[in-house]
Amino acid sequence: MNKKTVFISLAGLLGIIFIMFFSLKIFQIVYFNEKYYKVPNLKSYTVKEVTEALKNSELSIKEAGEEFSDLPIGEIFLQEPEANSVVKKGRTIKVWVSKGKALVQVPNLVGMNYLDAKVIAEQKGLIIDKVITVKAQGEYNEVLATDPNTNTLMTRGEKISFLVNGAEQVVEVKMPDIIGISFDNALEILTKNSLIVGNVEFTSIPEVQKNVIIKSSVKSGEKIPAGSAVDLTINN
């Protein structure tokens, strides 16, 4: 192959590359209406700031709505098309503005069963943190307190802790009237009512029959937890 042939082949190859390059440019000019742009990142800016920045641009923006997000109030948190997308001139970019983090008010969960309270808290977007159990009067698994307290404003995703009654349900009984009856009968009545005898003291009142109950530490008719001890004073 002589030099002339090599030169012609090389020139032809360069010509093909040249034609392909300019064909692509012509296609871009026609398809993109002579200009196309890369969409900038508008997130974390306000609509006012973006409008000012794009006033000499072929792009425009339109506020499409407001939603809660992790960004501060008034800042753009979502845009369409996304940043770095290639668009034609005159394209309108839709933006959504942040209303700030979604706040929820801690509902009144005190007195509820913990399992029900847990469901409600999670529906509010709160995360269950510590669950502390104590023995107290009331229903088993009853919520005694929350941290933060009822009506506190919290951000979705924050943690809430519970203080829960871990004791089995406390059954209350009514104190029977045992004044004036013998100790043996009083003991039988207390036992039937799920009560026990506590401290026993003796006193002497001549005009009162011996071995009868003249005083108890719990008044007749008063409600007390089953299993409680009742102190007695017996006439001797």
From TrEMBL:
Gene3D superfamilies: 3.30.10.20. The chain crosses the membrane at residues 6-27. SMART domains: PASTA (SM00740). Keywords: Membrane, Transmembrane, Transmembrane helix. Residues 33-99, 100-166, 169-236 form the PASTA domain. Pfam families: PASTA. This is PASTA domain-containing protein.
